[in-house]
């Protein structure tokens, strides 16, 4: 067990909490880079955040949910099922944004731009960020219900 800001929680939960807040900060940074038309840096930073989240945090959280610590599927009395459904939608939007990013990007003078045909990348990318953020808020609610007195 570990104590953070007066709240006692299992080590793995502290890892999820700090890790997902860090991923959120990186996603925001990647979005700002896109707004500043730094497409090349935007794509590296967004890909790093997406991969770390989908390869490290989300599989570990899913494994914890199915380990029985929250009870059996569909985890009655918790918000875990809607949390997972939202995350699956975020995953689909994120994969779509990545596909369209590579499909339509234009490389020029060591930078990367999105021509008008790539506007669906922008919309799917924004959908990913919104869905991912709502999923994070849902996760924070589950955390508060379980560990904050
Ligand atoms: C999960 C992954 C990604 C997300 C969520 C995402 C999201 C976004 C968003 C929301 C914008 C529009 C920002 C705005 O103007 O409001 C954008 C722009 C852009 N994205 Fe991505 N993106 C992702 C991955 C990629 C990848 C893999 C590439 C390239 C291979 C890429 C290349 C670009 C480029 C070139 C722009 C235009 C930047 C500019 O305005 O000059 N993105 N992205």
Write the layout of secondary structure elements.
Elements: E1 2-4, E2 7-9, H1 11-35, H2 39-66, H3 80-104, E3 106-108, E4 111-113, H4 119-147
Antiparallel strand pairs: 1-2, 3-4
Bound molecules: protoporphyrin IX containing FE.
Protoporphyrin IX containing FE binds at residues 31, 34-35, 37, 39, 42-43, 46-47, 50, 94, 97-98, 101-102, 105, 112-114, 121-122, 125-126, 128-129.
Which key features would you list for this structure?
binds protoporphyrin IX containing FE; mainly alpha; elongated; two-stranded antiparallel ribbon; 149 residues; 4 helices
Structure description:
The chain has 149 residues and is mainly α. It has one domain (2-147). The protein has helices at 11-35, 39-66, 80-104, 119-147, and strands spanning 2-4, 7-9, 106-108, 111-113. A two-stranded antiparallel ribbon has the order 1-2. Strand 1 and strand 2 form a beta hairpin. Helix 1 packs antiparallel against helix 4, helix 2 (39-66) packs antiparallel against helix 3 (80-104) and helix 3 runs antiparallel to helix 4 (119-147). The radius of gyration is 17 Å and the shape is elongated. Bound molecules: protoporphyrin IX containing FE. Protoporphyrin IX containing FE binds at residues 31, 34-35, 37, 39, 42-43, 46-47, 50, 94, 97-98, 101-102, 105, 112-114, 121-122, 125-126, 128-129. The site of protoporphyrin IX containing FE (HEM) has 25 residues, from helix 1, helix 2, helix 3, strand 4 and helix 4.
Radius of gyration: 17 Å
Helix content: over 70%
Strand order of the largest sheet: 1-2
Number of strands: 4
**Residue fraction in strands:** 5-15%
How do the helices and strands follow one another from N- to C-terminus? EEHHHEEH
Q: What hetero molecules are bound to the protein chains?
A: protoporphyrin IX containing FE
Largest sheet: 2 strands, antiparallel
Enumerate the spans where pLDDT stays under 50 for 5 or more consecutive residues. none
Shape: elongated
**Contiguous helical run count:** 4
The total tally of domains equals 1
N/C terminus separation: 16 Å
Sheet/helix structural class: mainly alpha
- Mean pLDDT across all amino acids: 96
């Amino acid at each position: 067990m570990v104590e953070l800001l007066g709240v006692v929680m299992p080590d793995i939960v502290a890892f999820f909490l700090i890790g997902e807040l860090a991923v959120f900060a990186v996603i925001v940074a990647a979005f700002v880079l896109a707004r500043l038309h730094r497409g090349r840096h935007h794509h590296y930073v967004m890909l790093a955040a997406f991969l770390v989240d989908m390869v490290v945090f989300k599989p570990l959280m899913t494994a914890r949910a199915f380990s029985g610590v929250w009870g059996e599927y569909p985890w009655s009395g918790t918000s875990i099922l809607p949390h997972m459904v939202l995350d699956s939608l975020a995953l689909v939007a994120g994969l779509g944004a990545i596909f369209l990013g590579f499909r339509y990007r234009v490389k020029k003078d060591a930078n990367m731009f999105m021509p008008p045909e790539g506007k669906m990348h922008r919309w799917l990318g924004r959908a990913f960020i919104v869905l991912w953020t709502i999923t994070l808020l849902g996760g924070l609610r589950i955390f508060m219900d379980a560990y904050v007195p």
